[in-house]
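User: Predict Cell division protein FtsB's structure from this.
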Amino acid sequence: MKLIRSLYISVRVWLALAGFTVLFVVAFALPLLLPVVQIGLVVFILLLGIETVLLFRVKDGFFARRDVPDRLSNGDENPLSIYLENHYGFITPVEVIDELPPQFQRRDVLFKARLKPREKQVIRYELRPVRRGEYNFGAVNVFVMTPLRLLKRRYQFEQGKTVAVYPSYLQMRQYELLAATNRLNELGIKKIRRIGHSMEFEQIRPYTRGDDVRTVNWKATARRTDAQATTLMVNSFQDERSQPVYCLIDKGRVMQSPFEGLTLLDYAINASLVLSNIAIFKQDRAGLLTFSHKIGQMVAADRKPGQMLRILEVLYRQKTQFLETDYEALYATIRTQIRQRSLLLLFTNFETVSAMRRQLPFLRRLAKEHLLLVVFFENTELRTLLDEPAQNTEEIYLKTIGEKFSYEKKQIVKELQQYGIQTILTAPQNLTANTVNKYLELKARGMI
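Assistant:
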């Protein structure tokens, strides 16, 4: 029974049997052709028997292994690989089918390879999850054939593995690496010209192009001057440190809209993870607060070594029913739990001016006690509609309605800025870069 279950017949066999059927029908009219067809059928059956022996005479004729990380990064292309090793003494064409978790809804994961005797190969591919949670991988099915490719023997490996999909830690590492090497501009992070500087003196160092000439230390320059050359020395000041930075994530119904497979909530979660890591790298204290119809989880601002792991675990376990958001509960919680003036990055979404005005009293109260930055989203599909020319009357009406929604988004930005509330209106895919840009800008201007 085990042999029968692992034995598969290829399409070539069915085509050959169909061909023999046609030949037998023709031989009924041409009797001289019948012996030739019978001999061909016997040879074909012998070939099937030989293939069966070749495939099953070796107990472990093939080996495969799926290499998958212990956790996957949500919204990113995660690299996976399948290791193949041929133990047969002949060239083996193989077909590999990887049983992916049902969340991916993919039915095209079929890889083909050709291995020489004792050869090893690695098949590499990528997966992009769009939901956090646990993903259950099935078996790796390898169908091994002989060079004739009449029969297949199925091998199964990696019988089930559960992998957790976390918020975008790959993006977090990428930003952290570029921040450490001062190359954030490669990801669209702008260099902010400093209007001034903090009063925290760091060191005296040689002048480099781009330094503020007002920071030249003439006494130190005089001491470094010799008969041949003059070396300008400047005072170097460091950014103020240990400033609390909180990411406030709205889990209400306004964050349910999907863009490129991810909900706005997951975009906000990924951006919060990256920003928290950058804040800790800049010696600030990162914290987190989630809310919807009630207050969710809160992580107090800190920059201890385990803070990022704590934030990552909290973000991974976020669940919501996308109900109506309670901003009054948010304000009450912040007032009692966050006593020190902090930078509050509120990730939410407003579609209309009236929706924003309903929450404006609470936003203004928060802006009086903290530096509030409201981050909400531009509808990229609406932007695509507005950029395309109208072809008929219906499209003109649609573009008119789209222009109204687009105008309201801009009105929301202006009205919030009138009350001293910082804002970011961004496309979902640009959320992380724009948020980090704004954080560095506020920090460079000494606003936090």
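The radius of gyration is 32 Å.
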